[in-house]
Design a protein that fits this description.
The complex is a heterodimer of chains A (330) and B (302). Chain A is of the alpha/beta class and 330 residues long. Helices cover 33% and strands 22% of the residues of chain A. Chain A has helices at 54-61, 84-90, 101-104, 111-122, 127-140, 157-169, 187-204, 215-221, 239-244, 249-257, 320-329, and strands at residues 11-23, 26-38, 43-47, 69-74, 77-78, 94-97, 175-179, 207-212, 224-229, 232-238, 307-310, 313-315. Classes of the chains: A alpha/beta (330), B mainly alpha (302).
Chain lengths: 330, 302
């Protein structure tokens, strides 16, 4: 396990954009200028509803999709200019766990073959070392050596995701992107997988990007939360700060929409008007313009950049603080 | 410090014998369905042909190439169970030797067109773009001609002979495999396990051939049977027209052609038996192919 100075950013995402042409010269702005850092031993959660672009961010970082502009920096070096062969070597440090373990495991490969592949492709290991590494890996994720000779369909959903995690960790990466790793799992298994991830993170000092739409899960695992809406981060800050004092109207709506499993707790819902607007060639305006309960005339006339409003807490809404106060009193 | 997760429970492992069959169908658990009648019948018939072909290497009742083994146009009898032809060669012996030709050429051609077509199709399907366009335009040119006509033209051009016939058949059959493989691989290109394979460190070739192709083989394997049935018909047609192999070769199409004169004068057996042999072999391949494509077609799965 390598050690780094405190707050050393292993991965830096700078002004990332991804446009998908949708014909007639129009573009879908899936990611519209996103910045964040990933740090060893820390989890940044990217939350937002479907279509907000959070999975696209992860795919751009590992270059399964090519970003349109911006930069992805790993250990101080941009990885965007690398050829696919050079990129394959970067995957030693940069790994990903996929959302659906049914779809991300090759149905014709046993667990052993799945886990052997990264070892063979990246590391020059003797057969003996590899066998002991396989055992170590499978036990690390809470399975047994007996599972090595099973096919994916012979495993339960939770076991499959454990295999997916073991595959990502096989070659000791430092950064792991988790794309909704628990979304397709039963609630009963979800907690186990989350605990496993937290344990592995502290043991291996991993930097996590945790993509999820499940706020309870995020609150459980994240150190820092970034809220995405229509391709932009609208609010970012320490997890408890975001959950206790959400500032952006969208964050407030999102958090107040989550059900509370407790009688007698009065819920103050922040409601947005209408539906999510289109990400095709959005105007230079706040993305929430037209839906926002505290909208001002200026909101639909210019972009709203992220502004620092507290320690590590940034919000893309100049009226947010005021709005919060207004609500409390009114 | 392994934890003790409670989700370690899973169905019984599939027994080894099932595993082989299951490997052919992409969902392993499905192989528990009983094999269909047409599958059994087709397989049995093919095994019978294969047995005859092997037997003919070591034993035939008479020399299949010896004229005058019996009288000219002897009707079926105990000495010559299927009769003799105009030259007095024993038809049963010729028919047995012919199995070797028809089955052998057919299998060689199918293996060849399967390999070439699958490899090119995988490349076209995975890489797409200009590569795909180039390969597909080439295939379209070949396929613009009816296959049998095309085969006849090439055989005429390159000359008769076993190797040439195999090559021509492989050439004519290849585009279908190519299209099938291209479609299957293309459909899987964006699946998550293809993305996962890239992150594990595979090159594009590794993803295409190690991950996508093995998962695309089902329909391709099913198609080999149908392709083989067609190949048998083309071999026999070329033989009948006298342009495939040398006219003396004991090939079924040749034999039918040789018996043509006898049909009007009552020597029906000379053409009938090779005809039945061809019918049986194509039928066996079709039955097998039908059963296999049922097995691989997700829409027809129970």
């Amino acid at each position: 396990m390598r050690t780094y100075p405190k707050d050393y950013p292993i991965v830096q995402i700078r002004n990332l954009h991804k446009l998908f042409p949708v014909g007639r010269g129009q573009n879908l702005h899936a990611i519209d200028g996103v910045d964040f850092d990933l740090r060893p031993g820390k989890t940044l959660a990217l939350v937002g509803e479907s279509g907000s672009g959070k999975s696209t961010v992860a795919r751009c970082i590992v270059r399964l999709i090519e970003p349109s502009s911006g930069d992805v920096v790993l250990h101080g070096n941009s990885i965007l200019p690398l050829t696919s062969l050079q990129m394959a070597r970067q995957y030693r440090q940069l790994q990903m766990v996929f959302q659906d373990p049914n779809a991300s495991l090759n149905p014709r490969m046993t667990v052993r073959k799945v886990l052997e592949e990264p070892l063979k492709l990246h590391l020059d290991m003797s057969a003996g070392t590899r066998a002991s590494r396989l055992r170590e890996l499978i036990e690390m994720v809470g399975l047994t050596a007996a599972h090595l000779d099973r096919y994916p369909h012979e495993l339960s959903g939770g076991q499959r995701q454990r295999v997916g995690i073991a595959r990502a960790l096989a070659i000791n990466p430092e950064v792991v992107l988790l794309d909704e790793p628990t979304a397709s799992l039963d609630v009963s298994v979800r907690g186990q997988i989350l605990d496993l991830l937290k344990r592995l993170q502290s043991e291996l000092n991993l930097a996590f990007l945790f993509i999820s739409h499940d706020l309870q899960v995020v609150r459980h695992v994240a150190d820092e939360v970034a809220v995405m809406y229509l391709g932009r981060i609208v609010e970012q800050g320490p997890t408890e700060e975001i959950f206790r004092h959400p500032r952006h109207p969208y964050t407030q709506a999102l958090i107040s929409a989550a059900p509370v499993a407790q009688w007698g707790v009065e819920r103050h819902r922040v409601r947005l008007a209408g539906e999510i607007s289109t990400p095709v060639d959005p105007p230079a305006a706040c993305r929430l313009a037209g839906r926002c309960p505290i909208e001002q005339p200026v909101c639909s006339r210019r972009d709203m950049p992220l502004q620092e409003i507290g320690p590590d807490h940034r919000v893309a809404c100049p009226f947010a603080v005021q709005a919060l106060l207004d609500r409390k009193t009114g | 410090m392994p934890t003790t997760p409670t989700d370690i429970h899973s169905p019984d492992p599939v027994p080894p014998r099932r595993r082989v069959l299951a490997f052919l169908s992409s969902r392993r658990t499905r192989s528990r369905a009983p094999l269909s009648l047409s599958m059994r019948l087709g397989a049995a018939l093919l095994l019978f042909y294969l047995g005859i072909a092997l037997l003919s290497l070591v034993w035939t009742p008479h020399d299949p190439n010896l004229p005058g083994a019996g009288p000219s146009y002897a009707p079926p009898s105990l000495a010559f169970p299927l009769g003799t032809d105009r030259l007095g060669t024993d038809l049963l012996s010729r028919l047995m030797a012919g199995t070797r030709y028809d089955l052998g050429i057919c299998i060689a051609a199918v293996v060849l067109s399967f390999s070439i077509g699958t490899v090119l199709g995988t490349i076209a399907g995975y890489f797409g773009g200009a590569t795909d366009a180039a390969i597909m335009r080439m295939v379209e040119i070949f396929q613009a001609f009816p296959a049998l006509l095309f085969a006849m033209l090439i055989v005429q051009a390159v000359g008769a002979g076993v190797v040439n016939v195999i090559a021509v058949l492989a050439f004519v059959g290849m585009p279908d495999y190519l299209r099938l493989a291209r479609g299957e691989v293309r459909a899987r290109r964006d699946w998550q396990y293809a993305e996962a394979a890239r992150l594990v460190g595979n090159s594009s070739w590794g993803i295409a051939f190690k991950h996508l192709l093995p998962n695309s083989l089902g329909p391709l394997l099913a198609f080999t049977s149908i392709n083989a049935a067609f190949a048998v018909l083309v071999i026999a047609s070329l033989g009948f027209l006298g342009i495939g192999l040398s006219p003396d070769a004991p090939e079924w199409g040749n034999m039918i052609a040789r018996g043509q004169d006898g049909i009007m004068t009552g020597q029906w057996w000379v053409s009938l038996f090779p005809g039945i042999a061809i019918l049986g072999m194509t039928g066996a391949f079709y039955m097998l192919g039908d059963a296999l494509s049922d097995l691989f077609d997700p829409r027809r799965r129970g």
